[in-house]
Amino acid sequence: MAFNATEFRANLKHGGARPNLFEVAITIPDSVDAERQVRFMVEAASAPAYTTGFVDVPYFGRDTKWFGDRTYSAWSVSVIADEDYTLRKAIEAWQDRGARGDWGTNHIEQSRGLQLYTDATVIAYGKEGEKIRELKMHNLFPVNIGPLEFSWSANNQIQRFSCDFEFDYYTEL
Predict the structure, then answer these.
(1) What confidence category does residue 158 fall into, taking pLDDT thresholds of 50, 70 and 90?
(2) Domain limits of the chain?
(3) Whole-angstrom Cα distance, residue 87 to residue 35?
(4) Contact 117, 97 (CB under 8 A)
(5) Which of 19, 53, 71, 147 is the most exposed place for a label (fewest CB within 10 A)?
């Protein structure tokens, strides 16, 4: 079968989804300023990866495979740093509150109304500006904040850092 460019174009709906038309929203506990910055400063994100396990069930001398539990990989974002480091400081403070050494504190703080787990959304837009997909990660918290790189040879660049979040599950809105 010969390649047919016309058929290919006809099957690529609306010319294909564009990975640079997106927005991220993360509710950052106790930081309204940082929460406002998220949609502008998160320059790269992804739809979360997941794996579905399986269970072997023996039946008449053979193993049959059944769907198991779904597990999610950490969700990573790349963030542009401003000179005040507003977003980075807010994420660091959020992680510090959840990772204190006095065990059990995070559950006590939640009962006092201090939020440690929150939600985040990734919205994909079409070329006309319409929402084409929206994913919401539930019960999210930061687990890894990447380094801030400093270099005398880094001219004409804006500083960036990565951040990984764990979450319970995601839904499509």
Answers:
(1) very high
(2) 15-49+64-172
(3) 8
(4) no
(5) 147
Tell whether pTM > 0.90.
no
Fold for domain 15-49+64-172? Pnp Oxidase; Chain A (2.30.110)
Helix (H, G, I), strand (E, B) or coil at 4: coil
Residue with tokens 């991220």: 24
Q: Which residue has the tokens 């401003």?
A: 82
Asked if 163 contacts 81 with a C-beta cutoff of 8 angstroms, the reply is no
H helices present in the chain, as ranges: 5-11, 32-41, 86-98, 105-111
pLDDT, tens digit, 9 for 90 and up, residues 74-105:
999 999 999 999 899 999 988 888 877 554 55
The DSSP code for 143 is: E
Q: Per-residue pLDDT for 68 more than 60?
A: yes
Q: Is 154 helix (H, G, I), strand (E, B) or coil?
A: coil
Phi/psi for 109 (5° steps) reads -60, -40
Measured distance CA(61)–CA(23) in Å, rounded: 52
